[in-house]
Amino acid sequence: MKSFKNAHRRSFMKASSIALMLGLAGWSNLASARTLAEIIASKKLVVGVNPTLPPLGVFNAKNEIDGVDVDIARAMAAKMGLALEIVQVGSPDRIPFVNSGKIDMVMGAMTWTPERAKVIDYTIPVYTEVMGVLTTQKMGWKDWKELDDPKVRLVQVRGTTPVKFISEKLPKAQVLLLDNYPDAVRAIAQDRADGMVDVLDFLTEHTKTHKVTWKTVPTPVDIYFCGIGVAKGNEALRARLNSVIKELNASGVIDKAWVKWFGAPMLHDPKAGPLWKDLG
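RESULT FIELD:
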């Protein structure tokens, strides 16, 4: 019994220590990040954008960061009466940049996940990304689960997330691995593969170059809701950004930016999921 009590006490102390560290980390993040009042006083909104995620972020002909995220950030800054400063970020440093105060907010496929939500706060979703199946008109698939068949020939880009998904969920399918998206889409157009599983929004620019009747399987594999990340506890800023996002969504500004850069409408409404209400 004494041993059990000691073990229980140690577990409680460990849990308390973790809670304290998380609390201190949240306090530290907020202390480093600029508050909404400080941002307004500076008359400048500093936004992190990843230029390696075209067309969300991309370098233009002038070697400036451009894309969907920049267009939306520019519209948000204008709504807030602020100048806009874009800071280049990458996947590994984007969250540290927010928490250290190097940027006020971060964009760029910031999919909401429980793990990320422990270290940053999210706005309501700005846009969505749909993981699904790209194929041609000749294939009669109605559900992605039908692809788990030895006769199905999938093509995927080597090293991407869907490769692992296929090995776990569609193990019977044949898989051809290629090095890039243009080659993968070309393989389907040339009938060297039947389809591919990936984020459909990013495939539009590649399908346009082939005279093929493309289609997507009606049932999506998954839907990712992407918002804006701010420092943990920076609630006034998060609330103000939420208000601006709702205005830009209602006025069609976000949809126009999406069509401008992707060449097609967004496939799934960001308001359709529970996060729009839960984070609003």
